[in-house]
Structure formats: structure tokens, C-alpha cells
Design a protein that fits this description.
The structure is a homodimer of 239-residue chains.
Chain A lengths: L12 E12 L2 E8 L9 E2 L2 E3 L6 H13 L8 E8 L10 E9 L14 E6 L10 H18 L13 H12 L5 H10 L4 E9 L8 E6 L20
Parallel strand pairs in A: 1-6
Antiparallel strand pairs in A: 1-2, 1-4, 2-3, 2-7, 5-6, 8-9
Chain B binds a DNA duplex (27 and 27 nucleotides) through helix 4.
DNA sequence: GCAAAAGTGTTATATGTACACCCATGG
DNA sequence: CCATGGGTGTACATATAACACTTTTGC
């Protein structure tokens, strides 16, 4: 921390990369952009870009998110630092240190392919392979992280529109975890956690065309779940 | 990600900062160094330094850890990325993006004040205030993180020597969380988690001078705790 | 014997799990 | 009237929390 010469070292570039998730047609999707230039021209990559001189990484990530999704109001969206990737060879051009973020979107706004990215597309998570740079790894880390956070935080509501049914909330868990959950137990668990969801007084909505209309809920003020809502098959993780 | 001119932007410096914890005399301690130069000359700070051109942040963190603690074998120690701090004004000299790490040491090796740091000292966590830069914040984040990780990982054994008693392991939890735990229940919980600890066949040790000698255990292969070992007073965190 | 620390046992309560069952709606 | 999805009830297993009690050591 005691070097004054700004150019004493080979400069580092600092970028942000975003793993932006949404749930569409009952499947987890991630936002990818197609690279227009070398390296990795034509390959898909996570959206991202350089941190500007007067920005923090968080500010840069939010700006990129707005640019790539074309959303008007990005201020309320959940953005969270994942980790920083700094392996010397991760970008063939120069030393690039990238701060990765995860973001969760309620529904999939089709408008994208904003400013600089050649093309942007929502891709099913399972099909998002062979990405540019070390983005396969970043994406896998991001998926792992949100899966874990669903267990002990109220993050799942970030995937839902402002008003949602408990069935939709359950689908979030089932989609991210790739499991099925018992509906009665899920319902009780969610309602027993104070501040997780709040009932919308008169609301009800048909979900699948058929069936009983479901009551509507809003996200509550709580941020953490106590006790946690554990994945069913989390036995093998002790070894 | 598409800029080729390495000097197009004002350069970023990339550093690592370390929050190195240990337990000493039943209290949580953190390793601090006294700054010899401006800015913040004479103030205490977290150890850290520049990432070198051919290093990853992890490599740099491990190198700094070895230098600051004077330990021979730093390879087995637990080092974990915390998050990256990138606010534009956090270093008055230039743009410094810092990747923060946490490290846990079994006991407190007194040998320190290694290479570049003016002085290094183990400081009780509660007395580590008014640090240089944004290190108060980093330290608080690190403490919060390790407290949370004790709940659902086997991290606590990293604070212990190779062979330890269950009483010592319990002290780790009590020290980091600032609570007391019921000994019989703690014991059952730990032993019921497969792979958390392994009994050392013939071992026993006197702990407090008096009392029954305690059986010795080693850290097991498990890394996560299922079900988790929750803090007692974690009620208020739902709101 | 007494204090201190380890270790065992027991019980009430809470929580998680696996179901069976009823309700409202569209076709 | 049946398929579909929402919602309720209930019995059982397991986990937690609180606390009494025994064991082994040093003084």
C-alpha cells in the first residue's frame, strides 16, 4: 500500500461480469451476449465491461445491467457481489481482474441487446456452456451461490413479480434447486417465517388456466430465513 | 471487454487486504500492522499489499500472510475471499481496488513484524477500531462472515491445533459468537455430524489444570454441517 | 472433600416429513 | 364430472433446548 508511482507496475484493468438469472417457462435462464471481437469472437459470454475511473464496481455492474437488459428502473433489482477472478491468464490481452456479480430478475424482459453488446439473449442455464474466458466457472459459481442463498435468505422473492402466488414462489425453489418440494409443507414454512411474504388483501389469480385461484402475496421486509429452508437432497454434502 | 489500449484508462492498482483471526486467551484477535508512511502513518491497518503482475489475488494473499506472520508453512491455512472493495475514494493516492481475504490461524505465533510492515501485532477484535482506509468496514464484514460460516461449515476446526478437545472447539464458537453454548448439546451435535471431528485413539489432555482429562479429536473430512449449528440468539435476524 | 472440567442421560417442545383429504375453477 | 392446481389436517420421526447427574482430575 506504499507505492506512489501510478505507473510503476504493469497496469491492471478492472472489469465487472454479471450472471443475470431469471425464470422463464419454468426453467432457469441466464443472460448472455455474443462477442463481436477477438478474443473469443462469436462466442457467448456473460455481460460485463470496464469499471470507469470514477465508478465503484457496484455502480459499474448496475450500469452494465441497465445497458444490457434495456430496463428502465434497475435500482430495485437485487445485485450482489459474487467474487473476484484474478488469475493472470484469464484474458489473453492483458491483466484483467474481474469483479463478478449476480443479479436476479423477476420476469424476462425481452428487450435487450442494448448498447455495445453484439447480441444479447436469455439462454437456458443448462445450455449455457463453452462461454468465453473463464465465464463457465463464474456462471457455475453464481448458480451454486444463489442455490445456497435460497436456503437461508428471502432471495427467492426477487425472482417473482411484485405480486405472486405461493405456487410461483415454490417454482422458484424447484427450478433453481432442480428438485420438487412438498406443497403443504412449503406453504407452512413460508407463512411461518415472519416477514417473508405478506398477503395481498383481496388478491387472487388463476395460475395454470385451470384450478382454484391462488391467493396473492408480496415480498415482506425480512431478508433472512430462520430456521432455513434446506434442500431435500443435501445429505451428501457432509462428506 | 473490448479495449486493447492498456493505457487508455487511468490505471487501477490491485491490492489484497487480509483479516487474519486467531483465538488467544479465550478472545478473538486479529493481526494488525502499524503503517509507517502516509497516508494514515502511525495508524493500524490490516496487513496487505500489491498484487504482483504474475500473481493471482489468492497467491498474493498467501504470500502476504506468510510475510506478515513469519510462518513457515502457510499452505495448509484456511484462506478465503471475502469481497472486493472498489469505492473510488478509498485510497487518497489513487484508484486502488482491494480484494479482501479472511484467514484463520490455530494459535497465535508471536513471530511477526516480518518484511515490509513497520510493526505487526495481535490485537483483540474489540480493540481493533479506527483503522486506516476502509479497514474498519472490511474487518467488520470479515467478522460477520466467519460468524455466519461457523453455523453451516466445519470452519471452526481451523482455529484449533491439529489435536483439540471438544471444549476447545466449543470455545471457538463461543468466542466468535460472543455467546455461551450448552456443553452436552454441543458435544452431541458435533459428534452426530459425520466427518466433522475424528477421535484420536489414545489421546487425552488436561485443559484447565484441573478437571477430567478430555478426549482429543482431529478435524474430519467434512466441510459443511447438516443440519447447521445455529447461533442461540439468531431470532431477531428475520426482520 | 471440594472445585473444576469432561462426559452421559432424560424429558418437553419444536420442527421437518409424508401423506390423505377437501376446495374452486375450466373444460 | 373430471382434471388441475390451491389449500387444510394429521400422524410420525427427528432435532433442539434445558437441566440433572456421574466421572476424573488437582489441590
Amino acid at each position: 500500500m506504499d507505492g506512489y508511482d501510478k505507473y510503476a507496475f504493469e497496469p491492471f484493468a478492472v472489469t465487472v461480469d454479471l450472471a443475470v438469472f431469471t425464470i422463464r417457462d419454468g426453467a432457469l435462464h441466464v443472460l448472455l451476449v455474443e462477442r463481436g471481437q477477438e478474443p473469443y469472437a462469436g462466442r457467448w459470454a456473460l455481460p460485463g465491461g470496464f469499471v470507469r475511473p470514477e465508478e465503484s464496481a457496484e455502480t459499474a455492474a448496475r450500469r452494465e445491467l441497465a445497458e444490457e437488459t434495456g430496463l428502465q428502473d434497475v435500482s430495485g433489482l437485487h445485485l450482489e457481489q459474487l467474487r473476484t477472478y484474478s488469475e493472470p491468464g484469464r484474458d489473453p490481452r492483458m491483466r484483467v481482474v474481474s469483479v463478478a456479480f449476480t443479479a436476479l430478475l423477476p420476469d424476462a424482459p425481452e428487450a435487450h441487446g442494448g448498447s455495445d453488446a453484439a447480441r444479447a439473449r436469455w439462454t437456458p442455464y443448462d445450455a449455457a456452456r463453452n462461454l468465453a474466458f473463464d465465464h463457465d466457472r463464474i456462471l457455475a459459481d453464481a448458480h451454486e451461490r444463489i442455490g445456497a442463498k435460497l436456503e437461508y435468505t428471502c432471495l427467492a422473492t426477487r425472482f417473482c413479480p411484485p405480486e405472486f402466488t405461493l405456487g410461483e414462489l415454490q417454482q422458484v425453489y424447484e427450478t433453481v434447486w432442480g428438485t420438487t418440494l412438498d406443497r403443504p409443507n412449503f406453504r407452512r414454512k413460508v407463512l411461518a417465517t415472519p416477514g417473508f411474504v405478506e398477503a395481498v388483501p383481496g388478491g387472487a389469480r388463476l395460475t395454470g388456466g385451470r384450478g382454484k385461484p391462488a391467493a396473492l402475496y408480496r415480498a415482506g421486509p425480512a431478508t433472512t430465513l430462520h430456521p432455513p429452508l434446506l434442500r431435500p437432497t443435501s445429505e451428501g454434502r457432509t462428506a
